[in-house]
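Record Cytochrome c556, 145 aa.
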Amino acid sequence: MRLRLAVFAAFASALAATAVMAQSDVIAQREALMKEFGRATRPVGGMLRGGTPFDLAAVQSALDVYARNAKALVPLFPEGSGGGETEALPSIWQKKAEFDGLFDKFAADATAARAAITDEASFKAIFPGVIRTCGTCHDSFRKKS
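=>
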């Protein structure tokens, strides 16, 4: 009987450790993708403010990052992967469909903008609408820093 309990306890401990490692892995993955969003946005943010010359290739590159990462992020927020050092709010899992929908919208908007932005004028008209979804998500689903 003691052997069974010891085996069960070892199995339960291993399972719990695996769950913690898997959780921290998705957190690390999503944080890396979010940081890539930030790196892609910095130069185009400068273009929007007029401090950096317009560069269509940089804009297209940022939009590609947005579309690719937005699609990749949806499965990286499984139930129970909040808390700890993450900035993810519980509202992500309380309103999961809305949260996932914002990533879907962001990917679709970025893809559409990639085709529609051809010059500085179209960039300044279209790009703010694409990144507005970022703000919506940050306002509702991210801890304020």
